[in-house]
Amino acid sequence: MRISELSQHSGLPIATIKFYLREGLLPPGKRTGRNQADYGKEHLSRLYLITTLTVVGRLPLSAVREIVAAIDDRGMQLDGLCRVINEALVPVDREDEAGPIGTAARKQVDDFVDSLNWSVDPGAPSRSTLTQVLTALRLLGWNDGVEVFTPYQEAAEIIASRELEKIPTDANEEEAAVMLVARTVLFEVAWCALRGMAHEHILTTRLANAREEDDNQ
């Protein structure tokens, strides 16, 4: 298909598609003339993926570029791709860990993660994310211990296992990589949405029960 057809099928302006081509987010089409190229289903699928990551996943193009490059890196295993996705979802400034509170929090987070017997890289950005959360809680005056993460860890292991079960064992490298990326990003958004609705439901129920108790007194 020509770029005009690619635009029609994807719903993206031609200018946007050309931008993705220039930035290397979309592979070049097969040249059919001096200023013409032919594009296939793989280009349309890549555009759908980019749209998913930027619109639904709300990722910046810089993060999408890293993820796409990792997908195209045929030598990268899924665990390596997972680390790229995690860093894209939660970019971390490790300088925020400085100071005695941050140092103590990092030690506790590392001990907590290591106690789970999870295969997690010592330099994983997610460790820094948990460190910053624990540090922020303490700076706000709450003396939460690292055990505050336990229910989240338990839920995360169940959710991650269920998500990864959906990746077929007979999928080729690119199919598995795209599925891992899309499902990780999409369900990250879904998790935040459901958690927000759960907060609203529980608080509304609590307030309704409190009003009912007041009325019955």
Describe the protein in words.
- Strands 1-2 form a two-stranded antiparallel ribbon.
- The protein has a domain at 1-56: Multidrug-efflux Transporter Regulator, Chain: A, Domain 2 (Orthogonal Bundle), CATH 1.10.1660.10.
- The mean pLDDT is 90.
- The protein has nine helices and two strands; from the N terminus they run ααββααααααα.
- Strand 1 (30-31) and strand 2 form a beta hairpin.
- With 217 residues, the protein is mainly α.
- It is globular, with a radius of gyration of 22 Å.
Features:
217 residues; mainly alpha; Multidrug-efflux Transporter Regulator, Chain: A, Domain 2; two-stranded antiparallel ribbon; 9 helices
Shape: globular
Which CATH-level-2 architecture of the domain at 1-56? Orthogonal Bundle
What are the low-pLDDT stretches, counting only 5+ consecutive residues below 50? none
Give the DSSP E fraction (strand runs of 2 or more residues). under 5%
Q: How do the SSEs run, as a string of H and E?
A: HHEEHHHHHHH
The CATH class of the domain at 1-56, by name, is Mainly Alpha
Find the structural class using helix and strand composition: mainly alpha
CATH topology description of the domain at 1-56: Multidrug-efflux Transporter Regulator, Chain: A, Domain 2
Q: Give the strand order of the largest sheet, numbering strands 1, 2, ... along the chain.
A: 1-2
Average pLDDT reading: 90
Number of beta strands: 2
Number of DSSP helical runs: 9
Helix content class: 55-70%
Major beta-sheet overview = 2 strands, antiparallel
Radius of gyration, in Å, reads 22 Å
What is the first-to-last residue Cα distance? 73 Å
